[in-house]
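Why do we bother with a discrete structure alphabet at all? Because it lets us treat a fold like text: something you can write down, compare, and reason about line by line. To make this less abstract, here is a complete entry for Adenine deaminase. Read it the way you would read a sentence in a foreign language you are learning: slowly, and without expecting to understand everything at once.
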Amino acid sequence: MSAATVSPMPVAGIPAARLPELLQAMPKAELHMHIEGSLEPELIFALAQRNGVALSYPSVEDLRKAYAFTDLQSFLDIYYAGASVLLKEDDFHDMAWAYLLKAQEDNIRHTELFFDPQTHTDRGVPFEVVIKGLSRACARAKTELGVSASLIMCFLRHLSEESAFETLQASLPYREHFIGVGLDSGERGNPPEKFARVFAKCRELGLHLVAHAGEEGPAAYIVDALDVLHAERIDHGVRCVEDPALVERLAKQGTALTVCPLSNIKLCVFDKMDAHNLGHLLEQGLKVTINSDDPAYFGGYLNQNFLETFEALDLDAQAAYTLARNSFEASFVSEADKARWIAELDDTFRRFAQ
Ligand code: ADE
Ligand code: ZN
């Protein structure tokens, strides 16, 4: 691991046997979570009943059985169908609230939630309904759970530039409810350049910019997300290893990668967890974070991602510290909040080292 990126742990010597407990207890941030991807089958069925929406699966078990994906698109087809039960402001609130309760259990201090307005506005659900429901849950989380939550609006990259501009226009009356924009959905054949002008406008508006790149798409999409879109973080980014000059650049710039290990296995980006390149990315000095992506579909929330990754890749307490610290450093919160949460992280490690 390069000295430049490994944050020194406050106290060394935490035994491997205590790692699972440490991964659970350590405060952390989650920076890559699609709120529509937190819709559990049980909630899909409950909302379908509440709203009189017909589902193509007879039971929760049958729906869960359909979660066997071969690639990103095979997942997206089911994911967009699942979101069809969301119609009212309360539906969006209830979905986000269910996730935020899990976030509290996982000791997440801060989360930056992606939402996909076009998935809803294309079905006739007004933008206002989506954002008001999600915002209400985020505000409640702060006061009732002590979890800080912000929203990042994603443009669906399989749709047109025109549709993205219409979405941006519809969002402007609610500008104070979200902190940035992202780019998600089917990556192959939808390069970052397609949204160059939309992102330029968002940049002018002072929004934070992130983009999915290098999940299924080539390393060149990561370069374009940086150079053309001016993305501040890269979502996934695991295919950066195919371009050594890019790896060097990402390490030098300290650009964060929001890696999602369980997602990568479920969507066949890697065959199995012990073949995941996260350990290698850390060794290359990259600012890696661990995230859950679409936890209801991929077999676990954030701490499950940490547990399975650490077990398979044989990572240690130093890696746990670096990953948790990176999550705060790469977040879009104030320097004061970062310092406060990192101090809490340090205290947790000191406690475990005793
Ligand atoms: N939307 C939800 N999850 C996604 C992922 N892993 N990649 C691209 N778009 C997504
Ligand atoms: Zn994602």
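What the structure line is telling us, in plain words: The pocket of adenine (ligand 1) is lined by residues 34, 37, 72, 79, 184-185, 212, 215, 263, 293-294 (CB under 6 Å). The domain at 21-353 is CATH 3.20.20.140 (TIM Barrel).
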